[in-house]
Amino acid sequence: MKELVINEKDSGQRLDKYLKKYMPSAGTGFLYKMLRKKNIVLNGKKAEGNELLKAGDGIRIFFSDETLGKMRQGNDSDKADAHDREDTRSGTNKSSYRADDLKIIYENEDILIIDKPAGLLSQGDDSNEVSANDLIRIYCGNKDRDPDETYKPSVCNRLDRNTSGLLLCAKTYVGSRFLNEMIKSHAMKKIYLAVSEGMIGEAGTLDGYLIKDSSNNKVKIMASGKETEHVVTSYKPVTYNERYTLLEIELITGKTHQIRAHMASVGHPLAGDIKYGGHPYKGERVQQLCAYKIIFPKAADPSADDNIKRCLSMLLKDKPDGILMSENALLLT
Fold this sequence. Notes:
There is one protein chain. The protein is an alpha+beta fold. It has three domains: 71 residues, Structural Genomics Hypothetical 15.5 Kd Protein In mrcA-pckA Intergenic Region, Chain A (Roll), CATH 3.10.290; 109 residues, Pseudouridine synthase, CATH 3.30.2350; 103 residues, Pseudouridine synthase. It contains eight helices and 14 strands. The longest helix is centred in the last third of the chain and has 13 residues.
C-alpha cells in the first residue's frame, strides 16, 4: 500500500488528473475502475475522480509494490530527457546554456520568472537542443523536489528563439493556473521593446487578422479573417534617428510572430528580422525584440478562485507595483 499526502504544489487539481500524472503507464479506464473498487481512496473514502485536491489530502493506493512500480514507469522521463539534452549539446554558442546560468528575475513557491537570452529556445523542438523549459525543470529539480509530486515545472508563455526577455514559468499546478489565467484574461500587460526600420514619430495601434503559413513558419496580416485570428498591437516611439526607431510595444492580443508581422505589414519590419523583410542590424540577422516588462494587476478579479487571489497577493507583497522588468532591454545607438 502506498500513501500520498498532497502538498501545496499539487493542490488545486482533480484527483483523476493527479493519478494519471503519478502513474503515467496506467490507463484512464483502469484508474476509474480502481476508484470504483476502492483500491484507490481519498481521505479514507471512496472517490469519483473529479474531486479537487487540497493540501493535506491523503490518497491511499492499495497496489502491490510491483504493480505500482509498473504504473509509475515514465514518470521521470521528462526530467531525464532534460538532463540528456543539457549533457549532449553540440558545444556551439546557441546551445551552451546550463541551469546554473538562468537569470532569475522573480521567484516564489509557485512561479518563476526568468530573463531569457536571445538564442535560447523557450520549449523543446525536433532539434533536441536544450530549451528554457528543460533548464527550468533541472533548476527546480535540484531544489529538493518531492519524488511523489506530479506537476512538472513548465513555461507558460513562449518567446521566439531570438527574442529575449521575460519568460513566465510555473513551479506548481496552482502557479500554472494563476499565470495562464493572467495571460488568458489579459489582466497582465506585456510590454516589449523593439528596434524597427524607418522613422516612426507618433504612437499608433495596428488592427488586423493573422493568417499562418505553416510551410514557411511565418504569418501574414490580413484586413479580414476569423475572429479567432484577430490581433491588436499598440506602439509608441521611445527615440529614433534617420534609420531606426526604438518602440515600446504592448501586445493587446498575443499570437505567434504578431509584433514581427504587424510591424512589417506597415513598412517598418524589425531591424535584423530577415524573415519578415528586415535587413541585418549591426551585423546581426535576428529580430531586435525584447519582452522587457510585465505589469500584473493590483487586484484579482472578484470572481477568481482563492488560489489565484493568493498567488497574486503573494507576488504583490514582494513587488507592490506589480512590475517586473528584463535586464536585456534594447537600446538604440
